[in-house]
Amino acid sequence: MVEQKEGTTIVLFSGEMDKAIAAFIIANGAAAYDHEVTIFFTFWGLNALRKDEPVKLKKGWLEKMFGRMMPRGPKKLGLSKMNYMGMGPKMIQHVLKKHNALTLPQLIELAQEQGIKLVACTMTMDLLGLQKEELLDGIEYAGVAAYLGDASQAKVNLFI
Amino acid sequence: MVEQKEGTTIVLFSGEMDKAIAAFIIANGAAAYDHEVTIFFTFWGLNALRKDEPVKLKKGWLEKMFGRMMPRGPKKLGLSKMNYMGMGPKMIQHVLKKHNALTLPQLIELAQEQGIKLVACTMTMDLLGLQKEELLDGIEYAGVAAYLGDASQAKVNLFI
Amino acid sequence: MVEQKEGTTIVLFSGEMDKAIAAFIIANGAAAYDHEVTIFFTFWGLNALRKDEPVKLKKGWLEKMFGRMMPRGPKKLGLSKMNYMGMGPKMIQHVLKKHNALTLPQLIELAQEQGIKLVACTMTMDLLGLQKEELLDGIEYAGVAAYLGDASQAKVNLFI
């Protein structure tokens, strides 16, 4: 009898810094306990994977507009509460550093070092006009079927 | 030894179009992989099940007000991000059609065709003053106990 | 062969009354079915555990500000939808009482009576400057590792 592998999957749907931090803290914790961990980035969650700098790409009008209006990378995300026109995220980053806790970019780096599978949802990339060149290097690309395959094998499955 | 049935349950609490789309894409994907799938609609998620047209019903003052203020059906839901006074949902619908992806009403239809169990939470229906006549035909009605029964049997349980 | 214990865990990340009510209804339902239930309060979810009255404590400037700006206890939480500057929560509380449903403070009390493990996330308590004296009596304190331990044993794991 083969024992079921311990696994954890997280769908990161939300594009807010506090939710992304929670997702990565759980994911990094699970990886430290030797779980196989997948984070599946879809909809606004994809913004956490964007590179800081704009990438020159051929895009239609609507895709360009989406690209400009959505936050570019983990440092630019807002908060789900107490955002105060962008003051909130600055306060949270200040507080994280004061407590020697990892900031979101550092949590993402740690996740990659720990071998956490970061998967960008190709369907929502299409919808929002995001292209591979704009996203972090070293991530995977897949659809909902791949997510469901991982989730069926995992014990802990969260939607954030 | 009886093998555990593959199952997926989703609590749809949120009343936003993007979250409902994500819920139905995951649910329809899981059903395509032969999972038993249940979506349990509670609180604002119930609005995704409302019929487009108002239904004449005897209601108290507060129930009438809730009924008027909440979005009537899947086409009227807002977005959790970039709603822009209702422009956002129109853009998303445009983009879905452009990419030959299913819109929310189509995803709901597909879910019913695939035999996904759509369950309206009777307790929150009471609270919000929603009656069966106002909701989609062919759905089920149950409470949290029924949800927990399904969730205990399922591998993938999400709260959206 | 040892049978797997039925367990349910909920991460309560959100600080809104409607989401906290949903979390406690599911948790209390699961406890009634004899599940081992843990609610792990993190980020804004911690506000549901705060005492109604301010507690005199030595705090830094930023911690004091967080303490003042965040809602103090379950009666002060807003709604995720239709908050209307605080009118919404009052309407929901009115509707709960009208239907003889439990209000959030009553749901929390019931959870404690049923032996549901209420765990405050120590890491986010630090970040938000919340101290044990400000939170409900009889709760536990732990980090993400303890949560993951419980979640790995549970069948139903939700992030709310």
From TrEMBL, chains A, B, C:
InterPro entries in the record: DsrE2-like, DsrEFH-like
Name of the protein in its database record: DsrE/DsrF/DrsH-like family protein
Species: Paenibacillus chitinolyticus
Lineage: Bacteria, Bacillati, Bacillota, Bacilli, Bacillales
